[in-house]
Amino acid sequence: MGILRLTVDLAAQRLTVWDGAHASRHYPVSTAANGPGEIEGSGCTPRGRHRIRAKIGAGEPAGAVFRARRVCAEVPLYTPEAAARFPGRDWITSRILWLSGLEVGRNRLGCVDSMRRYIYIHGTPHLDTLGRPASHGCVRMRDADVIELFDLIPVGTEVELHE
Hints:
- The chain is mainly β.
- The protein has helices at 80-85, 143-152, and strands at residues 4-9, 14-19, 22-28, 48-56, 66-67, 70-71, 93-101, 120-124, 139-142, 158-162.
- The protein has an 8-stranded mixed β-sheet with strand order 3-2-1-10-4-7-8-9. Strands 5-6 form a two-stranded antiparallel sheet.
- A hairpin with a 2-residue loop joins strand 2 (14-19) and strand 3 (22-28).
- The chain starts with a strand and ends with a strand.
């Protein structure tokens, strides 16, 4: 494999893994219900060039629940019973790929900083939302897909989010 990079097409709700000029994998995703945007507190998915700043969750089981980037003590694994106990929770499951913006003034520093906005590519149990905008700003993926992606790419991988 060559140098890998990712693109997230916000209009198509699809993440693509690129191996050089060759698209090697495609995954359905769910980005922000509020659409694209960079401002802190907007609930929008930021656009532009990013890098994977950190990979969180190596070795955790599929469905592991994260709060503040750690496995949740009260609900370590997503279940329908947990969902009933915590209705409306924005579940972050299985793996986290934390994004850091590369474009000062667009998605880095100030009120547009993707890393300080805690923008992730992460697992979700809400499979019915994949393929349409429904997140609070992050890029949601099926647990099996985000685990596969997590194992495939290194920290530092470039990610382009575009319309």
